[in-house]
Write a structure and sequence with these properties.
Blueprint lengths: L1 H9 L11 H24 L1 H31 L9 H7 L3 H11 L3 H4 L5 H5 L2 H5 L6 H32 L3 H28 L12 H27 L8 H32 L2 H8 L6 H19 L3 H5 L1 H23 L12 H24 L10 H5 L6
Length: about 400
Amino acid sequence: MATNATVHTSAVPAPGVYAPSMRTKTLYAVFMFIGVLLFALGLAKDPTRTWHSYLTSYFFFTSLALGGLFFTAIQHVTKAGWSVNIRRFSEALASFIPYAAVGAAVLMFGAKDLYIWLDHDTVANDAMLAGKAAYLNMGFFVLRLVIFFSAWILFRRLIVGHSLRQDHDGQESHTLKNVGLSIGFLLVFALSYSLFSVDTLMSLQPHWYSTMWGVYCFAGLFQSSLAALVILIGYMLRKGYARGLVSIDHHHDVAKFMKAFTVFYAYIGFSQFLLIWYANLPEETIFYLSRTQGGWMAATFSLLVFKFAVPFLLMLPRAAKRSITHSTLVACLILVMQWVDVHWMVYPNYNAEQWLFSWYEIGPLLLFAGLYLWSVTSFLSKNNLVPVKDPRIGESIAHHVTY
C-alpha cells in the first residue's frame, strides 16, 4: 500500500494557496464589530431577549462546526477515497469548535435569563422541576459543557492534526490512526451532542420532553453542514483553487448528500410530530401548541416548505447537483432555514405570540457569522487545501459520478 501511495502522490498537482481577500477580511471584521455593538446594546435594553438571540446563533454555528468534524470522521471510518480531496474543507468547518467553547462560557452569564430551572423559588414551587433538579442544576450543567467541549476539542485536535501532519511526512500511519480516532469520536458525539441539545435547547421548556430531540437536532446539523460544504466547494471551484484535484464530481456527490439529508430531516421532524400528536399527552403537546399560535404558525409552515419541499424539489434533477450556482443558492436557503429552525425552537419560550426578528437578533448573528468566517478562512489560509499525501488521493482525483 505504501508503494501505491508513492505512485498516487508523485504526480499530484499543487493545490494552490488560499489567501482571504481584503474584502473578505473587512467583511468579517465589520460583522464582528457591529455584532458586538448590537449585542452590548441589547444587553442594556432587554437582556432576556438578547440572550435568547445569542443562544440561537450560538447553537446554529456550533452545530455547523460539529457537523464538519462529523463529516470528516465519517470519511475516515468508511475509508472513503472519493472524498479525500474535499476533506480539508470539512476540517475547516470544524475549526470553530474551540471558539464555540468560549461561547459556551459566555452563555453561562445569561443562563438565568434563559432557564427557569435556575430560579430556586420556581423550582421549589414546582414538583416536576424539583424532580429534575438532580440533573437540571447549574453545577452539573457547567460540568457537562466542560466534558462535551473537552472531548470535541481533543478529537478535533487529534483527527485534524494527523491529517495535517501527513501533509509533511506522508506517513500512512496517520490515516490508520484516524480510523480508530473517528470511531471513538462518533460514539462520543452521538451521546454528547444529544445531551448538548437537550441541555441548551430542550431545557428551555423543562416541563416538555421528546425522546427524538437529539436526532432532530442532529438532522438539522448534518443537513446544514452539508449545505455549508456545498457552498465552500462551489466557491473553491469558481475561484480555480485545487484545480485538477477537486472537480464538479466531488461537488455533485456532496450536493446529493445534501438532498438526501433534506429528506432525512423531514422524516425525523414528521416522526417527532406524529408521535406527540398520536399520544396527545399534555406534557408533550405544549411544544407544538405554542408554535401553532400567532406568528409562529407561519414559521412552522415555512420549515415544511422551505427547509424540505423546496430544496428537495430543486435538487432532484442531475443537472441541479452539477450546477454550482443552482446548488449554492439552494444551500444558502437551507442555511437560512436552519437558523429559522433554531430560532423556532428557542424563541417561543421568550414570546409565544409573535415571530420576532429585529436588531436584537441581528447582533449575535453577525457576531458569530464573522467569527465563523474568520476561523474557516484562517484555517484554509494556513494549510494545504487538499491532503496532498493521503494514500487514497489518486482515487479521489479519478473520482467520477455516473448518476
